[in-house]
Every structure is written in structure tokens, then in C-alpha cells.
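Incident log, structure service

09:12 report received: a user says their structure output differs between two submissions of the same chain.
09:20 pulled the input from the user's history:
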Amino acid sequence: MPKMKTKSSAKKRFKVTGTGKIKRKHAFKNHILTKKSKKRKLALTHSGLVHDSDMNSIKQQLRLK
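09:34 re-ran on a clean worker, output below:
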């Protein structure tokens, strides 16, 4: 039986914390930054947590379940 591989896209985008939660980065901080306010760009800099409704699918992609 072959090994189950993790999704490369999920591996690059998500990190698991010590308590088992999944960290993510905010979108819309890549380009066309001139029209976005400083406050908005600063808020997008900080990482967030994955919502509970998305947790199962992301754990499956990372092969944690």
C-alpha cells in the first residue's frame, strides 16, 4: 500500500500550533497595495486561525485525521 501524501498547497499555507489549532495567513497582502490603507495592510500582516467549519477539510489535506 502506498503512503498517503499531504497536499503540497496546504503544507505551504498552514501550520499546526502546539495546542492543535491551525494557523493561516490573511489574503490580499501580495500586490496592488497602494490603494489599501496602512491600517488595513497592518491588520492583514498578522496571522489568524482557521475557522472551525474549515478545520476538518484542512486536517484531511494535511493528513492529520
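09:41 both user submissions now match this output. Likely a transient worker issue. Closing.
09:42 reviewer note: The chain has a mean pLDDT of 95. The helical segments are 8-13, 38-45, 52-61.
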